[in-house]
Write a structure and sequence with these properties.
Blueprint: H1 2-38, H2 43-52, H3 57-72
Length: 73
């Protein structure tokens, strides 16, 4: 009985862990694609484009949470 509960809890933890990893990797995948698009721009536009892509995933999450809280108010 305890083993079944432990197995159930570990399954949930594993799913949550994989979800977090896939969100992070998806963000970096999109960011890499956008950086690839920057390479086709002129110098000034290129530098602005690259600067927009420098945010880390953690900064992106904080910004997104801040936007969601202001939308809910």
């Amino acid at each position: 009985m305890l083993f079944n509960k432990l197995k159930y809890v570990m399954s949930i933890v594993l799913v949550l862990f994989l979800t977090a990893c896939s969100s992070d990797s998806r963000y970096h995948e999109i960011q890499a694609a956008r950086l690839g698009e920057c390479s086709y721009m002129a110098d000034k536009e290129y530098h602005e484009c690259v600067k927009r892509q420098q945010d880390s995933y953690d900064e992106f999450k904080k910004q997104r949470e801040a936007e969601q809280t202001t939308d809910n108010d």
